[in-house]
Amino acid sequence: MDFACTNNLREVISARLSAFERRDPPAAGLAAAVTLPLMEHGYGSGVSGMTAYSEWQSDAAVLLTRRSSKLRDHPGQWALPGGRVDAGESVDEAALRELREEVGIELQPSAILGHLDNFVTKSGFTISPVVVWVGSGIEPVPNPTEVDRVHRIPFTEFVRSDAPVLDANEGETHPVLRMPVGDTWIAAPTAALLYQFREVCLLDRATRVAHFEQPQFAWR
Q: Which of 103, 174, 95, 100 shows the shortest CA–CA distance to 140?
């Protein structure tokens, strides 16, 4: 599959999401929405172990953040832009609002390509993932009160042969899921959403992820 950040890629991903039959686990705890922002990779990624390109790279990437170390919930962890759904908001409205507030990217509802399965976290949230198309020509402006850094992770990282990593979880039926990126890794729940994005949007496979466990540091 060609990962160039073009309208053709946008149409392919949109079609695959439209054909995907979501199967959501029962909601639990607080409602939250996250975006998977798809955009041009640009110059390098800023992730340890990954090439810092000297030329502009036109391949597509997913924008991720490192949450501020000063936040009460999940400080310093890898995350997708997102947060709680406010009273009177839809999931889509919350996702687009959080994207604007966290990284300064303002999109219209027409930028939404589709949705992945909800994921219930150990920290008490039901996360609704919204896939959005940012495309090229837009630069994120991280909000320092919420985000320490932003990274654009190219699609090629998600289809690596060593992804995903499944770790046995003592006392649990299902393993903890991690997604390798550069020479580091991202843990569930964010990794579970990225893995389903890879399976559904990049590899055209209806893979479920709700059963995967999360490491204990992600419970807080």
A: 103
Q: Is residue 217 part of a domain?
A: no
Report pLDDT digits (tens) over 25-65.
887 889 999 999 999 988 655 566 665 555 567 899 999 99
Return the residue matching tokens 């798809």: 38
**Domain coverage including residue 81:** 7-159
Per-residue HEC secondary structure of 82-135 comes to: EEECCCCCCHHHHHHHHHHHHHCCCCCHHHEEEECCCEECCCCEEEEEEEEEEE
Q: Read off the pLDDT of residues 162-180 as tens digits, 9 standing for 90 and up.
A: 999 999 876 667 899 999 9
| pTM greater than 0.70 (yes/no) | yes
Give the total number of structural domains in the chain. 1
Of 110, 148, 156, the C-alpha closest to 132 is 110
The CATH number covering residue 150 comes to 3.90.79.10
Yes or no: say if 200 and 206 are a contact pair by the CB < 8 Å rule: yes
